[in-house]
Amino acid sequence: MPRLSHIFIYPIKSLDGVSVTQTKILPGGSLAHDREFVIVDQQGKWVNGKRTAAIHQVRSQFHLNARVVTLSVQGKNPVSFHLDHARSAIAAWLSDFFGFAVELQQNTVTGFPDDPTSPGPTMISTASIEQVASWFPNVSVEEMRTRLRTNLEITDVPAFWEDSLYSDDLPIEFQLGEVQIQGVNPCQRCVVPTRDAISGATTAQFQKTFTVKRKAEFPTWAPASRFNHFYRLAVNTRIAPSEAGKSLQVGDAIETSLTD
């Protein structure tokens, strides 16, 4: 039976992720602490990986129980801050790095998802990550996992199995552990996966290679109408307010119409 093998959350949007063994569902349908904070400029616009490749140089380590983040530039001269009591100091550190004034905004209901209409966790299979990594000789599986920044990873299924979690028109409901989830649509990828997650260096022809390979290996049973282009991978989801407070944990089984 398909099972949840990894959970990743990203407390500050676009910075490094944290691997956890369990997490709770927020009232807005996202995972606790995932994209809880976002960096914004003086006009309130997000400062993220889509906007600047420089952000890849920022290393962040999170101690969530203590509410502490340690920031550094490629591991040099790390400085620790309390996420709640030293937010202005974090903003000053980041402003110095970017060269323009920024601040942190917080949302503890939905976080700051890329798709506000589907703020649930993104999902992908381990086999899909492995398959996509095989398209790029110099990109390891772990590096591809870091580039894709997906929340939930499913094991014991074939590559692109997650394309079964949405349909041509309506969301598909499935059960992951104790949580009811709706699969909505295939996730449209941005510029971030084209870059090395640590250096920010761009992999030549990444999007073109990805698109050609994804189209060639697209499952015959998958809802092709949802693909206006093939630079899509993983599944965007929604979780109803009724599921708030419930937990997901590594090892949870997925029950769908395909596994019943």
From TrEMBL:
What are the recorded GO MF terms, alphabetically?
catalytic activity; molybdenum ion binding; pyridoxal phosphate binding
Transmembrane segment boundaries:
none
Give the MOSC domain ranges: 87-257
PROSITE patterns to which the protein is assigned, alphabetical: MOSC (PS51340)
Q: What is this protein called?
A: MOSC domain-containing protein
